[in-house]
Amino acid sequence: MAFDSKVPKGPLENKWTEYKDHCKLVNPANKRKLEIIVIGTGLAGASAAASLGEMGYKVKTFCFQDSPRRAHSIAAQGGINAAKNYQNDGDSVFRLFYDTLKGGDYRSRDSNVYRLAEVSANIIDQCVAQGVPFAREYGGLLSNRSFGGVQVQRTFYAAGQTGQQLLLGAYSALERQVALGNVKVYDRHEMLEVVNIDGKARGIIARNLITGELERHFGYAVLICSGGYGNVYFLSTNAMGSNVTAAWKAHRHGAYFANPCMTQIHPTCIPVTGDHQSKLTLMSESLRNDGRIWVPKQKDDKRKAGQIPEEERDYYLERRYPAFGNLVPRDVASRAAKERCDAGYGVGTTKQAVYLDFAEAINRYGTIECGKHGIENPSADVIRHHGLEVVKEKYGNLFDMYEKITGENPYEIPMRIYPAIHYTMGGLWVDYELMTSVEGLYCLGEANFSDHGANRLGASALMQGLADGYFVIPYTLGNFLAGEIYNKPIATDHPAFAKAEESVRERIDLLMGIQGKHSVDHFHKRLGKIMWEYCGMARNEAGLKKAIQEIRELRAEFWKDLRVPGSDKEYNPELDKAGRVADFLELGELMCLDALDRAESCGGHFREESQTPEGEALRHDDKFMYVSAWEYKGVGEWELHKEPLVYEKIQPTQRNYK
């Protein structure tokens, strides 16, 4: 296939302006005649639905939760990036573009990334207008902090609840459109099939999760905004319901899946405590602004953290990467933590953890506060008292969450953290307009591949979701729909809808009819262990080949020995999970195939055969400067297409954070 990514001609900094100046428009009267389907109500889905409703389109939005407010975007903690340069510390649109491209190890399309940086400042203005309570300085100016992979302060935040506040802003805008009659929300509905007619996406089959009924819905366009697929690993920081099903159904109907193996390992998670766990908890990357990461210099040191003197502590990130220190990108910090633990320097009962220590920050802030209050020669207790107040104000809810989960007071004892599966940079392939390889089928936010390459910088997920929904899709979707105003709506008794519904019914009957011995979670856990072991933080050719074989065997066993209790005519979460895990079992194989094909280390994708003498990731730009776009041919069968990556403004170099 010859890729048409529809990137406008001209200089990088002018592409988006040129596109907006020349894209087709739909007049207000015609917008009222056009129905659009939006799958997912997180930041990308809610902002898109609200924006399109505001423009006058008729929008149907679907979520499997009981409310759009329960989308996983609400769990994001640390912040959202924007090139405002409030600190006057050298930030700019170009620097945000460069940091994002470099952080992704030069494996993303530069035109999409530049547009993301360009519209980022508008997001903050939009959210402030919606009433999002960003943190502010004493004088009222919006506050900023730093995240990994950058040397400026560009991250806006609302304590450790930024995702929650941003989603409430988008939800409020969405509900306004619901009240006006422009948007209809279908909660407790899951999309189980895309309906393609004459080569265009024209609707979906959705299942009412309360009654079990299958429903047909027509739309002139379908927007997939369903988030990432990190739960293929079973243990991840994602919500338990997060899944790949919507994107996977689109993939099976012709939408290419790009860079599926590119998953992000977040370095700042609460470590696993045992086999009983069903998910992991993220501690915000913002903690790395003030927390220092270390391990004992002595192997298998059984002393408590407070008993280890300063000179016997190894602040390994500061030692290895002095220019960025504790604020190296996530993939670098994660690999470094794994290396220390594998070498025998891990802490805690499992020895699969490192310390995140705030003692120095508490002392530093306390000294500053004492100076502000005119306290001369303060005692250590007075300094600590004032320092604790500052840290509580900045990170209090995160510290409280850590204590509730672990039973340890992080103000007194350093936190223990370890890397875990978090975000997925891979997703449906989209062009500059966010359209997939199927006409009329779009993909926004984490569900697409476009902006983060091989590794996402912290605080960029919220930025991309809102950029896509508020400022990109309103233009690009109109460019497509301008040609659809002559086409009448298609009735849902069309044979394509009937055929799609029948295929969904057959699959449900098949899942219910197996009546084997094992639960859905039994298979999901086993898949997760295979993925983490062979396609997780480190990968090699032999392990990936073994994983592919084991996944195929596990998938065959799943379809022979799964047991789903209850009925499909009622609320049945086990049936819902069964369908999602069936899709994960196909996705897992593709992820390993993609990882096997990409025999280089880049970003969060670390191939053991491809590393520098210092153990850093080693890219091979001469062989792998492309997007891997996989076309579905059948279960276990795909064809690889390659979109070349060409950079106009910058020359890719080996990443260096030292």
From TrEMBL:
Matching entries from SUPFAM superfamilies are given as: FAD/NAD(P)-binding domain (SSF51905), Succinate dehydrogenase/fumarate reductase flavoprotein C-terminal domain (SSF46977), Succinate dehydrogenase/fumarate reductase flavoprotein, catalytic domain (SSF56425)
- Judged by the first EC level, this protein's enzyme class is oxidoreductase
What the entry lists under InterPro entries is as follows: FAD-dep_OxRdtase_2_FAD-bd, FAD/NAD-bd_sf, Fum_R/Succ_DH_flav-like_C_sf, Fum_Rdtase/Succ_DH_flav-like_C, SdhA/FrdA/AprA, Succ_DH/Fum_Rdt_flav_su, Succ_DH/fumarate_Rdtase_cat_sf
Molecular-function GO terms, alphabetical? electron transfer activity; flavin adenine dinucleotide binding; succinate dehydrogenase (quinone) activity
Q: Which cofactor does it need?
A: FAD
Q: What is its main location?
A: membrane
The membrane topology noted for this protein in its Swiss-Prot or TrEMBL record is: Peripheral membrane protein
**Compartments where found:** Cell membrane
One of the protein's GO biological processes? anaerobic respiration
- What EC number is given for this enzyme? 1.3.5.1
Q: Which residues are the active-site ones?
A: 330
Q: Where is the FAD-dependent oxidoreductase 2 FAD-binding domain?
A: 36-462
Q: Name one GO cellular component term.
A: plasma membrane
- State the PANTHER family in the record: SUCCINATE DEHYDROGENASE 2 FLAVOPROTEIN SUBUNIT, SUCCINATE DEHYDROGENASE FLAVOPROTEIN SUBUNIT
Record-stated family: Belongs to the FAD-dependent oxidoreductase 2 family. FRD/SDH subfamily.
Q: What is this protein called?
A: succinate dehydrogenase
